[in-house]
Design goal:
The protein is of the alpha+beta class. The chain has one domain. The protein has 7 helices and 7 strands, in the order ββαβααβαβαββαα. It has a 7-stranded antiparallel β-sheet with strand order 5-1-2-3-4-7-6. It is globular and about 55 Å long. It starts with 5 loop residues before the first strand and ends with a helix. 39% of the residues are buried.
Length: 191
């Protein structure tokens, strides 16, 4: 039975992001929400660090983009819901099962790399740079990007962690995930 909590998959061509209403962020993820006072939605995007921070401009950069490497998470704060900000055709919003927002918050928190214990900033997110959009920031991810662990795989893992019946295995491209999420949305939407 849905709880009223939701999650959004935002598709930008080859890339996907996860949108979480800011008030649904719980546990340690509340620290991220506090970085963006007044945000209605927090958007989390995962990808290869070098590719996300300095977008590709040449064919050579595009070719080496998918090769494995350190990952980053871009957090963007928006003042509306995801569908309004990105356009309804690019966003699919799903209801979460009981406990889904808490599980998703835990997954997202674990996705960030933190300063190690015993350091002056132990447990703090590892900031990288200002994001590509006003109101966005880049942080170091705890996992690595690779051909079999893309932004789309990561988004599928986030949805599965929230308790949605999405299998991340085999998801590499945004179209495969978008199709699965839209099918699930049709199943969850009453006639």
């Amino acid at each position: 039975m849905p709880t009223g909590d939701t999650v959004s998959l935002i598709t930008h061509g080859w890339h996907t992001d996860i949108g979480l209403p800011a008030e649904e962020a719980s546990g340690p993820l509340v620290r991220v929400r506090r970085l963006f006072p007044g945000a209605r939605t927090l958007v989390f995007g995962y990808g290869k660090r070098t590719f996300m921070i300095a977008p590709a401009h040449t064919i050579g950069e595009w070719i080496i983009g998918p090769f494995p490497g350190p990952a980053a998470i871009e957090v963007s704060a928006i003042s509306s819901d995801a569908a309004t900000a990105y356009g309804a055709r690019h966003v699919e919003t799903l209801p979460l099962p009981p406990g889904g927002a808490q599980r998703l918050s835990a997954f997202l928190w674990q996705a960030f790399d933190k300063a190690p214990d015993g350091t002056a900033h132990a447990g703090e997110l590892r900031y990288i740079a200002q994001g590509n959009f006003p109101g966005s920031l880049f942080y170091q991810a705890s996992s690595h990007y690779g051909l079999l662990h893309t932004c789309n795989t990561w988004s599928a893992e986030a949805l599965a962690a929230a308790g949605l019946p999405i299998r991340p295995a085999g998801i590499v491209f945004s179209g495969g995930l978008d199709e699965r999420v839209r099918d699930l949305s049709r199943q969850l939407t009453p006639p």
